[in-house]
Design brief:
- The chain is mainly α.
- The protein has one domain (8-114).
- Helix content is 48%, strand content 3%.
- The chain has helices spanning 8-19, 25-31, 47-56, 64-72, 86-99, 101-104, and strands spanning 107-108, 113-114.
- It has a two-stranded antiparallel sheet with strand order 1-2.
- It is flat and about 60 Å long.
- It starts with 7 loop residues before the first helix and ends with a strand.
Length: 116
C-alpha cells in the first residue's frame, strides 16, 4: 500500500463531512481567489463523528453488530452512554456549549451543520 492511498472508508467519512458543511472552502476560493485561504478547524474526515457526538453524545453508532459483539463479551448490549441515558447527551451538549466548542469548530449547534 502506497503512502498516497487511504482506506476507502475515509472517502465515506470525507463525503459525510462535506455534506455537513454549509460553505465549501474549495468553491469560495474559486469565487474569491484573492481571499486568504484557510483550513477548517475540523477536518472533513472527522466532521461526521463530531456531529454524531454533538447529537448523540457518542462518536460511533450503536448498531446490531456492536450490540452483538458486546453481548458475546457478556456485556450489556447497550453501552452505558447517551444511547442508554439520553439526558446525559443534553448535559454533555450544555458543557460543550459553555466551553464554546461548537463555535471553535464552526459548528452551528441549532442547524447541526458546519459553517466551514
Amino acid at each position: 500500500m502506497s503512502t498516497d492511498k487511504h482506506p476507502k472508508s475515509w472517502d465515506k467519512l470525507i463525503d459525510g463531512g462535506k455534506k455537513n458543511t454549509t460553505h465549501k472552502i474549495e468553491e469560495e476560493i474559486e469565487i474569491y481567489p484573492w481571499r486568504k485561504s484557510f483550513m477548517s478547524t475540523a477536518p472533513d474526515v472527522a466532521k461526521p463523528s463530531l456531529k454524531r457526538d454533538f447529537e448523540l453524545g457518542l462518536v460511533y453508532p450503536i448498531t446490531e453488530q456492536v450490540m452483538g459483539a458486546r453481548k458475546a463479551c457478556h456485556l450489556d448490549p447497550m453501552p452505558p452512554t447517551a444511547h442508554k441515558f439520553p439526558e446525559m447527551a443534553d448535559k454533555k451538549r450544555a458543557i460543550l456549549d459553555d466551553m464554546g466548542t461548537g463555535k471553535k469548530l464552526a459548528f452551528d449547534t441549532k442547524k447541526r451543520v458546519y459553517d466551514y
